[in-house]
Design brief:
Blueprint (H helix, E strand, L loop, with lengths): L1 H13 L60 H9 L2 H5 L10 E9 L4 E9 L8 H12 L15 E8 L1
Antiparallel strand pairs: 1-2, 1-3
Length: about 170
């Protein structure tokens, strides 16, 4: 039944649907002879640009003053608190085939001690982490919140990165 419908459809598509005879092609008139082009005087033609020698004159610029910022007051405390979570963090890599290193980065809110926008990237010849391992690492590194001194004037969220070896 389906085969017969397909054959019928194919025959309908191949059928010539013209009900009227084809129209003859329109005759194209020959273009009118053109008038000769106006002669342009050589002085009116713009001269080509001179080629550059490749040398640019030296410009005097003011000296760049780079303001050196003091190190973040809470950074050392943060590193110590991250390293204190190493025992819990080791549980995330139980059953790993080989040791490796990861680059971990997060935005740290020092006044609350919370993290946001965490990323993990394997480095060198390290294997990719499984979904469970990634979730475990993020959970261990973000809970409980960090106890950081945010009394300084630079207590806005800062992107901080570390290398984690397992």
């Amino acid at each position: 039944m389906l085969l017969a419908a397909l054959v019928l459809l194919l025959l309908l598509l191949l059928q010539d649907c013209r009900c009227t005879p084809p129209q003859p092609l329109p005759v194209i008139d020959q273009p009118a002879p053109s008038t000769p082009a106006e002669v342009v005087e050589p002085s009116a033609v713009p001269s080509p640009r001179k080629r550059s020698t490749g040398r640019i004159p030296r410009l005097r610029r003011p000296a760049y003053e780079n303001e050196l910022l003091d190190p973040l007051p809470w950074l050392e405390s943060y590193r110590i608190q991250v390293s204190s979570r190493s025992v819990r963090l080791a549980g995330c890599f139980v059953g790993a085939q080989q040791p490796g290193t990861l680059k971990w980065a997060a935005s740290v809110e020092p006044s609350k001690g919370t993290l946001s926008d965490q990323t993990l990237e394997p480095t060198l010849m390290s294997d990719e982490l499984t979904r469970q391992q990634r979730a475990c690492v993020f959970d261990v590194l973000s809970d409980p919140p960090y106890d950081l001194d945010s009394s300084g004037e630079r207590s806005t969220p800062v992107r901080v990165g570390m290398v984690i070896e397992f």
